Amino acid sequence: MAPVGSKRGVLERLGAGEVVIGDGGFVFALEKRGYVKAGPWTPEAAAEHPEAGETLPNNRRSQLTGESQKHISSSIVQGPFKMRQLHREFLRAGSNVMQTFTFYASDDKLENRGNKLTFTGQQINEAACDLAREVANEGDALVAGGVSQTPSYLSCKSEDEVKKIFKKQIDVFIQKNVDFLIAEYFEHVEEAEWAVQVLKATGKPVAATLCIGPEGDMHGVTPGECAVRLVKAGADIVGVNCHFDPMTCVKTVAMMKAGVEKAGLKAHYMTQPLAYHTPDCSCQGFIDLPEFPFALEPRILTRWEMQHYAREAYKAGIRYIGGCCGFEPYHIRAVAEELATERGILPEASEKHGMWGSGLEMHTKPWVRARARRDYWERLKPASGRPLCPSMSTPDGWGVTKGHAELMQQKEATTAEQLRPLFQKADCKH
Ligand SMILES: [Zn+2]
């Protein structure tokens, strides 16, 4: 393990042809654990549940109101702080990157549609950086500060206004000296370009991932062209994250790579897909599925399917391989196990996991011992256990994107009058 302060940077690792394993999506993982609200999906958990108050220094605690002080006190009594624990679980599973839990932590998103927060964007971003750094220093991991799409862009605000929002988050990342920066979860390449330009000005390495599939961005810009534009904007690493399943993401990144190479440019490639199967999604990805976000469980990939994903990503020339929504630490461990030979190391968490089910050799029941082999798990077609479960769904397909009236965002809570026509429109479609 490299001592703290002497770790090799992300571009150094990728430049040497090494595999960099990312982490999983904190928003979904922490929602299931009760620390994130589905809907706003904002990451205030970074600041609101510090374990024994360690991550929130006294000077900031004293700025808090009586109500939030009470909140913190009760969480001290509750015990373990899940975010730190989740970072540790991913580290133990083989992650080389601790991404700051700053998804949707821009000020305009934090206060969108009536979301009431006790903490400022700055406090949330600072606390997330401290947590990621603390755990990264326990192993061979780097810290990446992340920004994502903004409501301001959807509401057609100007380039200057949107860039100012990114700049506020990035000022915190620079002050906290993160190792590199990620612009992720952009569905319009134009907004991602703006983010990359702001990130690049810091001098840190920049990764940029769009949440697009083979059909391209929400305005129909192809993956190849998107990638070329991101590289020209200054991204060192390009790829996709979220919205689509692993194999669709590998296919999309392969299209990006072909575009970049055809343009005579150079980049490293990255994929951080969903852990859900999405063969039925169109360009809007899984948020268009009727099961999003509370009934996606039957679509989860098994660990063996993740090994297949890791191999195919590697074969496609992708070297930054991680995950997004739905990924749990055991999925990342599967990626690390599949690429153990290439990386020359097995993750710590494999101490409790025999490769390809070999731990089952110790099972008391003989028919389960018969499953202690690779070809059994590779050939298995897992059942859903739901007799009426369809294999595919019909995506909503409203087809609204930036510039459409229904996508204008607001600070105030959504009213009943605003919801009524949406319910009616949805009922007409089903
Ligand atoms: Zn995601």
From TrEMBL:
SUPFAM superfamilies: Homocysteine S-methyltransferase. GO terms for cellular component: cytosol. Residues 46-70 are annotated as: Disordered. The keyword Zinc applies. Residues 56-70 have a biased composition (Polar residues). Residues 8-339 form the Hcy-binding domain. GO terms for molecular function: betaine-homocysteine S-methyltransferase activity; zinc ion binding. Pathway: Amino-acid biosynthesis; L-methionine biosynthesis via de novo pathway; L-methionine from L-homocysteine (BhmT route): step 1/1. GO terms for biological process: L-methionine salvage; methylation. Zn(2+) binds at C242, C324, C325. The keyword Zinc applies. Binds 1 zinc ion per subunit. Keywords: Metal-binding, Methyltransferase, Transferase, Zinc. Its cofactor is Zn(2+). This is Betaine-homocysteine methyltransferase.
